[in-house]
Amino acid sequence: MQLGLKENWRQFTLLVLVNAFVGGMVGLERTVVPLVGTEEFGIGSEMIIFSFIIAFGVVKAITNLVSGVLADQLTRKKVLILGWLVGIPVPFLLGWGPAWNWIILANVLLGISQGLAWSMTVNMKIDLVGPARRGLAMGLNEAAGYGAVGITALLTGYIASSYGLRPEPFYIGIFYTAAGLIISVFLIKDTRGHAQMEAAQLKKTNADESENKPNLLWVFGETSWRNKTLFSVSQAGLINNLNDGMSWGVFPLLFASVGVGIEGIGWIKAVYPVVWGLGQVITGPLADRIGRKPLIVWGMMVQAIGHVVIGFGASFPLFTGLAGSVLLGIGTAMVYPALLAAVSDAAHPSWRASSVGVYRFWRDMGYAAGALMAGIVASFLGLTWAVHVAGLLTFCSGLLVWRKMKETWNRYYCHGFEIASHEPLFTPTPNQDD
Description:
This protein is an all-alpha fold. It has helices spanning 9-30, 33-40, 46-49, 51-73, 76-87, 90-96, 100-129, 134-163, 171-186, 192-205, 216-226, 228-257, 262-290, 293-311, 317-346, 352-381, 383-404; strands at residues 413-414, 417-418, 423-424. It has one domain (9-424): Growth Hormone, Chain: A (Up-down Bundle), CATH 1.20.1250. It has a three-stranded antiparallel sheet with strand order 1-2-3, with no helix packed on it. A hairpin with a 2-residue loop joins strand 1 (413-414) and strand 2. Helix 8 packs antiparallel against helix 13 (262-290) and helix 12 (228-257) runs parallel beside helix 16. The longest helix has 30 residues, at 100-129. The two termini are 35 Å apart.
């Protein structure tokens, strides 16, 4: 057993493929489901339509938190398989559900499935590659996932324009579920041993490191507010996904209201996650060269500019929608792998999976926060103002990271320590008897 991307490239590649299927399940909904609410079920309230995103975000966030604990207590592989099993009914509910409540139920199951399966692909890649290539690992993982989100959003848009909103666009999800489950059961190997190896190496580096493993309550507090760096990362993740949750519900309705067709909406919805996904092939390794903080700060600023372009581009909706989505994708590509890598840097391997789960809890609460914010703002001020508010929040989040976050990456970084100064980059594990 060895740490490193080269040493574990076969398993790493399989996990990239599995995460593409995981991401594709989310892509099923990006173009079609909001239009199903307005056109098929005749729903006129933005809050009711966005309820499926709120349900997805809250459930996925809570499941992320639980998945970190399960990953530390059970095996990563078992949790991954469980995620796929929970997701089996989702495409059937989306394609044939007779009422809007069935769509919400599908999103509850999808949130559980995503929280378990996507969290495990993240943790398993972190386990395999070790500390030196975390940025690259997270870039490839998220590139596969969000690239599949965008491609699937585009495919469902084309299928819906040719065959209707339901059930044909959701046939793809049946394939994703079957393929992901088969690969996870028969080809994926568990990686908890790699995390234990890294922890053992770290213990040799720092003889004073406590062997006690903290409980979830301690990890939650450390990741959420006590550690300024982890707090900065967690709030940036929340605002980043607030943007995604807002765009998920608002963009199809906003662009449909100004005359953009389903195919055009499909392109707008596809460009954002495709650029976001593929861009991480570049920004992931870049985070291992220039550090995490610059990518996070400037990524949030680029997203804020994307909101400005979309919010003030009503005269040319298709052009500004595509341009703004490209900017949102670039900014998110800069932020996403750097955030995950920063959490992985700052958390000790013995509680890293739990810390990643807490970060992903706050990050994916952003889906619910974005949908809720968009529904409230759209009800009083209109859909365009939901875009403006999201842009302002994103700008403020970037400033907060700039002021509060400490850079977690160092060119001499090795197993959680700065070799030159021997200063630990993570908070020491607490003594549980204290």
